[in-house]
Amino acid sequence: MNNSIKEKISIIQGDITGMQVDAIVNAANTSLLGGGGVDGAIHRAAGAGLLAECRTLGGCPTGEARITKGYNLPARYVIHTVGPVYRGRPQDAELLRSCYQNSLALAAQHGLASIAFPAISCGVYGYPVKEACRIAIDTCIGFLEHYENLSRIYFVLFGRPELEIYQQYWRQLTGN
Ligand code: ADP
């Protein structure tokens, strides 16, 4: 991996709703009408405007992504993507990869420079974090290799165990 890509990726622990970036990514469900976990936290922080806009979208299939404004969030936009419920099938990895790819493509289409991802599917959807983090990081690196206008990708992990798993894979890739 070249140094410029290395410098564009940050792995941090925190609450994604506080991120001052162009877009935060929401691990939504197919209804796009809110839920628990990070989805609930984002809707609470964004306020009722977010739900009202989400109602106009008519849902989102698993693996795809939709963009809305950020309302009361510090982030300008929310990119809603629907991760797979983990069942150990090959399609799960493909769908999770699509979530990252489609979210990044939307950010690019809107000319965004910074984006923050939670650990999509790693909560109630049960995806093993070790496998999910490889997909997350590999897909983002692949995207950065072909698209230069995105200057920063944050992976925002809520818990220490998830943070450590991401950091370990990152060290393996970068050798530091
Ligand atoms: P999914 O249904 O896709 O599994 P969850 O919201 O249940 O989504 O969990 C996804 C990940 O988001 C989990 O690792 C969870 O710990 C984390 N998470 C929950 N709240 C927040 C938050 N406010 N900021 C960042 N990550 C969060």
Describe the 3D structure.
The protein has 176 residues and is α/β, with parallel strands linked by helices. It has six helices and six strands, in the order αββααββαβαβα. It has helices at 3-8, 37-46, 48-55, 90-109, 129-146, 160-174, and strands spanning 9-13, 23-28, 65-69, 77-82, 114-117, 152-157. Helix 4 runs parallel beside helix 5 (129-146) and helix 5 packs across helix 6 (160-174). The longest helix is centred in the middle third of the chain and has 20 residues, at 90-109. The two termini are 12 Å apart. The mean pLDDT is 97. Bound molecules: adenosine-5'-diphosphate (ADP). Residues 15-17, 27, 37-39, 41, 83, 118-125, 156, 158-159, 162 line the site of adenosine-5'-diphosphate.
Question: At the third CATH level, what is the topology name?
Answer: Leucine Aminopeptidase, subunit E, domain 1
CATH-assigned homologous superfamily: Leucine Aminopeptidase, subunit E, domain 1
As residue ranges, the low-confidence spans are none
What does the average pLDDT come to?
Answer: 97
In total, the number of strands is 6
Characteristic key phrases:
176 residues, alpha/beta, 6-stranded mixed sheet, globular, 44% helix, binds adenosine-5'-diphosphate, Leucine Aminopeptidase, subunit E, domain 1, 6 strands
Task: Record the SSE blueprint.
Blueprint (H helix, E strand, L loop, with lengths): L2 H6 E5 L9 E6 L8 H10 L1 H8 L9 E5 L7 E6 L7 H20 L4 E4 L11 H18 L5 E6 L2 H15 L2
Parallel strand pairs: 1-6, 2-4, 2-5, 5-6
Antiparallel strand pairs: 3-4
Helix pairs in contact: 4-5, 5-6
The protein binds adenosine-5'-diphosphate (ADP).
Adenosine-5'-diphosphate (ADP) binds next to helix 2.
